[in-house]
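Q: How would the structure tokens look for this protein?
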Amino acid sequence: MTVRRLVVLLLTIGAAGGCAMGDDTATAAHRARAQDLRGVDLGLGFDHVVVPGDLVPGAANDGTATVDVSVVTAGGGRLTWTPGRTGGTAVRTPAYAAEGTVPAAALVVRTDPTTPDPFDPGAADLVVGVDFRADAATAGRPADDGDNLVQRGRYGEPAQLKLQLDHGVPSCRLAGTLGEVLVRGDQPVTPDRWYRLTCTRSGPSVRMELEDLEGSAPPQTWLGAGDPGAMVFDHAPLSIGAKVTVRGRLAGGSADQFHGTIDRVVVDVG
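A: Here is the predicted structure in token form.
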């Protein structure tokens, strides 16, 4: 698409040294990913030294937008560093719990409320994407069926963007002044396998793409019916890995926790 303004949230969880990046291949991969952060408003490179198993404390923006990226938890949940897809590190979300308290945790991106919201697309084109590896499904909680990967805005609010796995099936929901557009895949993803899920609003059309990052087949593509219209979030928090409230806290009752690993998130407004 023709990009007039570029806003990218790139979660490329790598490190420049230490236990997680101990070879030349991993370091080269991190440097290649770091090139993507140049000139963007929001880019999270996670280029500090990390140790797998340590808690993820949050992140600092390498781009130009004024944001705060923190971690919120509930029920004993936590985010930890884990080996990534390309030799660096990634974020491990809480494991599934069939009984007892549901552990939950998410990364939350907040914008500066005293300045114009840099992530309000309005009627402009929009791309949202995430690399993920889902855990195998575990029976126990029938309501645990909407694993959130990336979300901004809640259902019923004036605007929403969401990438999720519903019973393992990828879907994208965009909502705005003209209503909602929901694009859904045909079947569940394979557990413990890396995928890249991307949702694109270009003009009046919405397209979802799923790429198997461990295979050679071309990406699968689905088209949505309708145009969500203008999407204005007015500084609502953007969450990664679970659902949060307008105040950036994990949603009570069901946080729609994603169980697995996340290595990259992209939000591109143009």
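The first strand starts at residue 67 and ends at 74.

Residues 24-35 form the longest helix (12 residues).

Upvote if useful.
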